[in-house]
Design goal:
eleven-stranded antiparallel beta sheet, Thrombin, subunit H, 15% strand, 21 helices, seven-stranded antiparallel beta sheet, alpha+beta
């Protein structure tokens, strides 16, 4: 048991990480990092950041919608997050008659705030190391992995049930960290009545569209505003007109002092997924197989959607959220692929594995990297087939509709789907060997002779569409997925030892757990970067840059006339818009508060620079930068574009 448990002292062993500003740290263990943070400029204590005994910054941060972060900015439940995090909800309220995507939305009173069925926000109540509880009853060396899994499952269910027994919206989960070397309990309180308060027009909230996405300099006003409602006891409740604005334990003060290069910053949010400690074979697959193939498939899908969206306002509204969802990862993967190859991450990992193997010779860890390589060799081909299925067949909406899966017909346009069927089924057929296709597919392919003929049959007959969907789903979610999971479990088992071994191999390195959508703290400084020879990007963009990009003939760069008029009056040339910092972030950090040394809100995280998107696998301190929206631009848009300055009355400013 002693060998399997990793103490907090080992997990946060070193004073500094090997690479400056790298790391996503658990708030409950932030006392182990606080002196380093303070040496870099922080003016808060560990208790200010995380405490279970008093209100602290964690109480002002929420998991928004299950995949983003948000922050409380008033005593009346007012919440900031990204425009792209609220985008699907704004889209659902939009129509040709009330195009809130195009024109923006501003509730000028509480009664005008719009409910959003299904949208939740969750506050972290507490987190704690429960490794000894979860592994209670497990006897290393005397029990096999199946017995361990059974014990972990039983102890987890008991612990979660106990944590949730109060009710009142409590949701608990036990998360495995460091590949199961450590377990943490996370207890959240989930609120279900969240209403839209304000959103800028997309020409501000998505300014630059996919052209500027992941790029710097950035000029996107990526924010939206919501309000949390609760029952009369400040507890979670379903939507009701009787509900009242939520009163938070803590909300963030807003700083209008601005940022300067070198300023200390930290991000408090819910990063989604990273793979910092994986084997070179995993990186090789991502960089040379997975990313390039998914990029190509999504390029085709985006081209089909854009063609129809450009020709119809109604279709643009219907598919805007879908398009953005497809394009976001598509653009990210391009930067990731480029960055991994530029940094030679595969080669660096292999060199590390050589040194590790020499150290491990004669120990219990001997041969572990070869074992991982062998599992990946078997896994990669079948995992590729599963990814191909997800990126092709599962994107055809006709099949989803026929199968009776949840689908909003309001946002469906059949001509897009018909063209998508031919393109994606053709790609599926050409991209995979026949051995990875079910017999039903092969029979129907021969029967119809062309994808166009097959498409016509599928769109004419719900029975035909359902039969195709069911056959492919049964095959890929059956034997294919079963094999993928089996091999993934084998990897996880070896990684548990490999993770522990890496910590023993590098005892002076500070190891942080991979991101898993739980609350983390990342910290760094406002800083520009040099992506290529003779180029240096300064860390702050301004309204002047928006005007320079403004183009009425291009949808993504056609700013509101009001903004042009404001600029023409003079005095706003240097209005800050976005800024860069060295904080380590990833997906899920969208909407995260960016705080200054005193814990006051200076911005909202919304992106990374394209050259630094490799940070999910390899953090390069020279180019890994997070992009944040300056809070002063948010205030500017609220006042000058939304004419909703009344919202300032409930905010607290710290200049």
């Amino acid at each position: 048991m002693k060998r399997l448990l990793i103490s907090a002292a080992l997990l946060i062993a070193a004073i500094t990480p090997l690479k400056a500003d790298e790391g996503m740290w658990l708030p409950a263990l932030i006392s182990e990092r606080i002196s380093h943070m303070q040496s870099h400029g922080l003016r808060l204590s560990a208790e200010d950041i995380y405490s279970v005994n008093q209100a602290c910054l964690k109480d002002a941060v929420v998991l928004f919608g299950g995949g983003c972060t948000g922050e409380l900015v008033s005593a009346e439940g007012l919440l900031f997050t990204n425009h792209h995090c609220g985008y699907s909800y704004i889209q659902k309220h939009s129509s040709v008659e009330h195009d809130y995507l195009k024109d923006g939305f501003w509730a000028l009173s509480r009664t005008e705030e719009l409910p959003n069925p299904g949208l939740t926000v969750s506050f972290l109540e507490r987190m704690e190391d429960v490794t000894s509880i979860i592994l209670k009853g497990y006897k290393p060396g005397k029990m096999d992995e199946a017995q361990r899994v059974k014990i972990v499952k039983k102890n987890t269910e008991k612990l979660v049930k106990e944590a949730e027994k109060e009710g009142n919206g409590l949701k608990a989960s036990v998360e495995a960290l460091y590949y199961g070397n450590q377990y943490f309990l996370f207890v959240f309180r989930e609120y279900r009545d969240v209403r839209l308060v304000g959103a800028p027009p997309s020409s501000i909230g998505k300014f630059g569209g996919e052209t500027d996405n992941w790029m710097w300099p950035r000029h996107t006003g990526d924010f939206s505003i919501f309000r949390i409602y609760a029952d009369s006891n400040n507890m979670p409740a379903d939507y009701s007109e009787a509900n009242v604005p939520y009163t938070p334990k803590k909300f963030l003060k807003i700083s209008r002092a601005g940022v300067n290069e070198g300023d200390f910053t930290f991000v408090y949010g819910c990063p989604g997924s990273t793979q910092e400690y994986v084997h070179s074979a995993a990186v090789d697959y991502i960089a040379n197989v997975s990313d390039p193939e998914k990029i190509a498939l999504r390029t085709t899908r985006l081209g089909i959607m854009k063609k129809y969206m450009d020709g119809s306002q109604k279709v643009r509204i219907q598919y805007s959220s879908k398009y953005a969802g497809v394009a976001n990862a598509w653009k990210k993967w391009q930067g990731e692929e480029k960055g991994l190859k530029k940094m030679k991450t595969v080669e660096v990992k292999k060199e590390y594995e050589k040194r590790f193997s020499a150290w491990a010779k004669g120990t219990e860890y001997e041969g572990i990297t070869d074992n991982l390589a062998a599992i990946y060799e078997e896994r990669n081909s079948i995992y590729r087939a599963y990814e191909y299925y997800r990126e092709t067949v599962l994107t055809i909406e006709r099949l989803r509709i026929a199968s009776g899966k949840s689908f909003d017909m309001k946002d469906y346009y059949e001509p897009i789907d018909r063209e998508m069927f031919v393109a994606m089924m053709t790609a599926f057929d050409k991209g995979l060997e026949d051995s990875y296709k079910p017999d039903y597919f092969l029979q129907k392919r021969a029967q119809y002779g062309s994808m166009e003929a097959w498409r016509d049959a599928v769109f004419a007959s719900n029975e035909e569409a359902k039969a195709l969907s069911d056959a492919l789903e049964a095959y890929f979610n059956g034997p294919i997925l079963s094999k993928v999971r089996s091999l993934s479990e084998s990897l996880d088992l070896v990684y548990r030892d490999y993770m522990r071994a890496q910590m023993e191999f590098e005892p002076n390195k500070a190891f942080y757990p991979d991101a898993n959508l739980t609350l983390r703290v990342a910290y760094g400084h406002v800083e520009g970067y040099s992506p290529a020879d003779a180029i240096y990007y300064r860390p702050v963009s301004t309204l002047k840059g928006i005007i320079e990009k403004d183009n009425p003939d291009i949808f993504d760069y056609n700013i509101p006339q009001t903004l042009r008029d404001i600029y023409a009056r003079g005095g706003f040339e240097n209005q800050p818009v976005c800024f860069l910092a060295t904080n380590h972030t990833t997906g899920g950090n969208s909407g995260s508060p960016v705080l200054n040394a005193h814990g006051n809100l200076i911005g909202i995280n919304f992106d990374r620079v394209w050259e630094g998107t490799l940070s999910d696998l390899d953090f390069d301190p020279d180019v890994c930068r997070n992009i944040s929206l300056d809070v002063r631009y948010i205030l500017f848009i609220i006042k000058e574009i939304g004419h909703a300055a009344y919202l300032f009355d409930e905010m607290c400013f710290e200049d």
